[in-house]
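Homework help board

Subject: predicted structure for assignment chain

Our instructor gave us this sequence and asked us to write out the predicted structure in token form, then describe one feature. I got the tokens but I'm not sure how to describe them. Can anyone check?
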Amino acid sequence: MKKKFLKYFIMCTAVIFFMSSVSARVLASDYDIPVWSSQNNKIADNEILPTNAEVSLNETLNSTQAVTNNPLNLTCGGAILIEQNSGDVLYNYNMHEKLRPASVTKVMTILLIMEAIDSGRISITDKVSCSENASNMGGSQIWLDTTEELTVDEMLKAICTVSANDCTVAIAEYLEGSEEAFVAKMNEKAKELGMNDTTFKNCHGIDEDGHLTSPYDIAIMSRELLTKHPSITNYTTIYMDSLRDGKSELVNTNKLVRNYEGCTGLKTGSTSVALFNLSASATRNGLSLIAVIMKGETSSVRFNEARKLLDYGFTNYQYKSLGTANDVVGNVEISKGLESSVEAVLKNDVGIVMKKSNNNDIKQNVELFNNISAPLTKGQKIGEVTFTLNDEQIASVDLVASKDIAKYGFGSMTLKVYKSWFSLLRS
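My token output:
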């Protein structure tokens, strides 16, 4: 009897164990099966670009993981390639992954410095002193001493070429009074630019908890710097230079400046935690690209994968100019003005990024406003030009008045009649 009971007990235990194992695997599969949501990025030529899908692991945990087809087989933590003028995304891989930027942080620092210079708030000849805090930064530096001063120009050169942390903090303190106040400005600017993946904790990029950004956000601030302050390339394209009457040699940490055709910058960064990061920019044949690599395993990986992205862009895409600012498109009649018409000109440059394989004709449609009365101000909108490809609108630009047109009064009307009669009599 005891033997039968023991045998029965063993059989029941085995069945319960087997059923528990199956249930556990079924339960686990509920969390492991990904739910795909395709989010295609399109540019002006109507061709679908590499996509970035979201994998929902568990909605109750609010957890998502960015993935991609990644045809270039990038091995870094995240990457993106954009066209600089339009901001079109040409390739992305985990572009919203929040990662540590290391010294690529300094793209934002440099942006704020250039805004201060170009607005006239500071000059590149201004002398900047070094605080005790700045001199003790460590990491990449030029060993500033608290007794010396360098110009803004010299500090920018050191920041852009050798990523000098001491110069970065010194100029941040010069601009805002303290590094903390400067970092607050960095975060304000990030919010203004729509950098929703970013939180800055310092101005230099030394690892700090919560100091995070993404490839997408780095591309945003890199584009803002290059498009709004193009003179920065006077610094970011330096390969070798020196400071302190030649005593301090500078060699750019961005090796692409020397060996990649058309390279215009922009900034490297690395720490033992962040690994190797890079925002690389280049221009060829009117096409300007920005490639961002984050969390590359080695320095070689970040440069090689940035090359892959840039080569991909230059091989497959072209920038097609559709018009230049102030190009005359037509004439608009003006009533009640001292002049009867005004030239309609393009308000700004207009162009698109398109696949080289797309040879379809782009059509232009000009719309000029009717019933326009004086007075008219130079730059006032008086029409619009739209461009279509395969019957889909790909770009548009305002048409504006090329000059002021004053409204005629009694005196001006009399003068106009007099001139008309005088011309008639002479004929």
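Reply (TA_rk): Your tokens look well-formed. For the description, you could write something like this. The radius of gyration is 30 Å. That's the kind of observation they're looking for.
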